[in-house]
Amino acid sequence: MVPAAVLARARSLRQEIERHNHAYYVLDTPTIPDAEYDRLFRELQALEAEYPELAARDSPTLRVGGQPLDGFAPVRHAVPMLSIRTETDTTAAGARAFDARVRKELGLTETDPPVEYAAELKFDGLAINLRYQQGVLVQAATRGDGETGEDVTQNVRTVHSVPLRLALDAPPAVLEVRGEIYMRRDDFERYNAKQRDAGKPALVNPRNGAAGSIRQLDPRLAAQRPLSFYAYGLGEVQGWHDAPATHSATLDVLAAMGVPVCGERVVGAGADALVAFHDDVEARRDQLPFDIDGVVYKVNRFDLQRTLGFLTREPRWAVAHKYPAQEEMTVVEAIGVQVGRTGALTPVARLAPVFVGGVTVTNATLHNQDEIDRKDVRVGDTVIVRRAGDVIPEVVSVIRERRPQPEPPRFDIMQSSPVCPECGSHVVRLQGEAAVRCTGGLYCPAQRKQALLHFASRRAMDIEGLGDKLVDQLVDRGLVHSPADVYGLDLATLAGLDRMAEKSAANLVAAIEASKTTTLARFIFALGIRNVGETTAKDLARQFGTLDALIAAKEDELLAVRDVGPIVAASILQFFAEPHNLDVVRRLREAGVNWPESSGLQQSTGRLAGKTLVLTGTLPGLTRDAARDRIEAAGGKVAGSVSKKTDFLVAGEDAGSKLAKAHALGVMILDEAGLLAMLDVDKPDRQPGQPDCEF
Ligand code: IVH
């Protein structure tokens, strides 16, 4: 015997949990924190474990999934689950053709008023019949052949937005709700990311994800898949007093019972309303949180639906009006490589032509090497290609079963393109970067426009008037191939360009001429070396003093520069290792680009050469920056934290954990006076006559 108090508690827990479920999964407005929900859930689980007599078909504890099945029992549908006719014409004419047929079959003439329609989305998932008896979900079945489906009750109970009990005081004896189980795109992405992290197989697309989960024999696995449900109609109904007279009112009432109904639906008059809905949804299709493959139009009044009746297995009162599919299957005939504006080499699948998303697609991006590896795309593979909206078509996944035998080799960008396909410069993949890049930044035609705009920008060579419109023209007409060519442009050439008056051409010539006199820092920045921003360019100029010293710098010398780490050092080395870039630099100098040079910071001979110091606390007479400058001027390096490699800790007032750590590691500790003493014995590092201007 279950004590009355336990029975009451179990009932109240079930109600409360289902209320939170509905708020979370249907209304999208959580009412309690997850932890609190879990607590209620566990309390109910414990009660049910203690009192097996408590078992109930509408208990939320069933949502976690029960015992695996040997197979699904067949379910004969009381009312057949029909399919709907698909309007073949994907343009607005499809909606008009449907309206014309309906009017003809209803015997309406031109003078009769327009027919009222309900228009809704065509969800892309799996059709399901939910059978509620006395308001309790007793069975869920797939469509099957329309007459007989499969009993998937256990799995469907794991779908949180499916109510286990209808929110009704006097429920009909039987109410069958029909609708679609689907998977939201964000849930699909999240689930796949988790699977991949765990090294498990990912789902092909949301539709397969939904259909596959419901057909899972182990409900506990189905419970782990994030599924959703939308109702779009009814099956068998018994004892429903005051049942609505239209389709749209029925959906409203279902929503009031706690059944999820999609808000994206309208009721409208005549073909115009259908066309408007079709076009409106098409424009917003990619912003919807789930996939649809079209819209559905239904005659709204049930009495008219009955008049229209059925044609073999399809109702005459409804039609599906599809959109072009966004995913199709095709074969990868080759894999090419494209060079982007920033020099990134993007692998591109060359495809057997396929009509997808409304256009014929022959190329789809593979993004980068990591993506190729993750999806394991090979030449000869059959793949799913997606083109949604204006987004570049992409290869979504490979259908492994169709891979030719023997298996084609894996594709490797560096192997297929050891040099840039555009300019022949060598390519590199920097540590921590997904992209393989061309190093011929100044020379590569693919990067020309970007390189030129950067070169001319205000903080680089500062050539006023050389903006993107002009760069487009200069490059497109073949007048400028690299930044060095800018210095060969004359008045006549410039004045001949579109939208160039004599006056602005003369101004530009003057700006180009003026830019020749610059600083080393600006010049280094203008080269557009990857990962070398303005500040690093200044530091490099200060450290090395001359361009030739920078070009000749070894990795350890680069690493000695403030804020230059292994990635920046590698970028610099790679840039100057590319002969094409050196050639452009030489031509720029020959064209007259010049800057004052110095002998740089002779760190190798400085008193602190090769030493690493750390600053902490407040020094009485020196700011942090001043101390850093003095140390660097003496060839030392200032690091941010104390380690075994630290030679000296310079500690001021209020020194904290760094001091303690230095003590612990046995690092020598100096105060300001100690630091100055070390610097004082040194000869001045800066050479007389070194420019004091901007580095
Ligand atoms: S009504 C008698 N409405 O499309 C009409 N079906 O062939 C029954 N579908 O697999 C269907 N969204 O699961 C209807 N808003 C919607 C729908 C919809 C998707 C699916 C349905 C079935 C197919 C109809």
Strand composition percent? 15-25%
Question: If classified by CATH, what would the architecture of the largest domain be?
Answer: 2-Layer Sandwich
Distance between the termini: 89 Å
Largest sheet: 7 strands, antiparallel
List low-pLDDT spans. Answer: 682-695
**C-alpha Rg, in Å?**
36 Å
Please tell me what the overall shape is: extended
Structure classification: alpha+beta
Please bin the fraction of helical residues: 25-40%
Molecules bound to protein: 2-(butylsulfanyl)adenosine
Total E-strand runs: 24
Oligomer: single chain
Instruction: Please give the domain count.
Output: 5
CATH superfamily of the largest domain: DNA ligase/mRNA capping enzyme
What does this structure look like?
The chain is an alpha+beta fold. The chain has five domains: 4-56, Helix hairpin bin (Helix Hairpins, Orthogonal Bundle), CATH 1.10.287; 85-322, 2-Layer Sandwich (D-amino Acid Aminotransferase, Chain A, domain 1), CATH 3.30.470.30; 327-416, Nucleic acid-binding proteins (OB fold (Dihydrolipoamide Acetyltransferase, E2P)); 418-602, 5' to 3' exonuclease, C-terminal subdomain (DNA polymerase, domain 1, Orthogonal Bundle), CATH 1.10.150; 612-679, Rossmann fold, CATH 3.40.50. It contains 26 helices and 24 strands. The strands form six sheets. Strands 14, 15, 16, 17, 18, 19 and 20 form a seven-stranded antiparallel β-sheet that branches. β19 (427-429) and β20 form a beta hairpin. α1 (4-25) packs antiparallel against α2 (34-50) and α18 (520-526) crosses α19 (534-544). The longest helix has 22 residues, at 4-25. The protein is extended and about 100 Å long. The termini are far apart. The relative contact order is 0.06. Residues 682-695 have low confidence and may be disordered. The structure holds 2-(butylsulfanyl)adenosine (IVH). Residues 82-84, 120-123, 127, 180, 232-233, 296, 315, 318 line the site of 2-(butylsulfanyl)adenosine.
